[in-house]
DUF1722 domain-containing protein (Paraphotobacterium marinum), 317 residues
Amino acid sequence: MIKVGISSCVLGQKVRFDGGHKLSRFVDRVLTPYFSFQPICPEVAINMGVPRPTVRLLFKNQTNLLVDTKTHEKDFTDQMNDFSEKKINQLNEQNQMCGYIVCAKSPTCGMERVKLYRENGNTIPGGTPGLFTGKLIQKMPWLPVEEDGRLCDLVLRRNFIVRVFALNDYYKNINLQSKRKDYINFHTRYKYLLLSHCQEGYKELGHLVAHICEYNNEEFYHIYRQKFMDTLRKHANRKTNTNVLMHIQGHYKQILDKNEKKELSEIILKYRNSILPIESPMTLLKHYQNKYYDKFIECQSFLSPYPEELNIRYGMQ
Ligand code: SF4
């Protein structure tokens, strides 16, 4: 099972300030069979209790402080920073964490745009990440992190799931002892998926692999992982997906008969013009792959970046 960290309340644990939870149905119904969730509630972990007074982020002396909402006199910043430092180091050392789902808007767990208050009660435009998640993103910048609410957006959801499965694949196939051939195999399998997310990223990763001898094993492991995950963070869209679909189409050029070629071209064009979802050309390509089998295409993660049963629609890209 793939290890994914999660804000405890999003998993349904009653740890919120009011004794409630924020169970995500998507997490509960769709992801639970695939992910081994590691629930963490930083506020409970530093003994703030349940129920507890609400807290907010206060910008004071050029620092984001975690203080009680009413008086600003109870300051939990040092405790939270100490806990975050230790917990995230521990998660990092386990080296198997493939993603993290956090609770939106929380001054502790929010990923972005959490309200940041001035002493006069006004908020600072743009907000900030919560104290714990801000540190998580800073210390593990390769880790796919997403908020519960944003996972309702099909494009963001797919991007997050793709990254979690890709990172898990990296950990399964690459380690600190991996050799050039291991990276070449891995990089080859991800060619079309990377291309669909970012052409420049794919090229830069190829350049890295070609110059692997300039790095020591550990250095390369970390550099490739970061660049790989940065590339997948960019969103695939109809234009980039069409480009990849046409590349794959090229592999069957000699094998498909006239009618099959026409059918595939038309379906790719309809996808490009937003008439059909990506499932249409993907299904047809998988059909041709079953029928004609191309060794290179068979290993491409682009056609199956996560288990089909997850049934996550790509959304209108
Ligand atoms: S948002 Fe974070 S700190 Fe708040 S209840 Fe949920 S897990 Fe705990």
Observations:
- The chain has two domains: 2-152, 176-317.
- The CA atoms of residues 2 and 35 lie 5 Å apart.
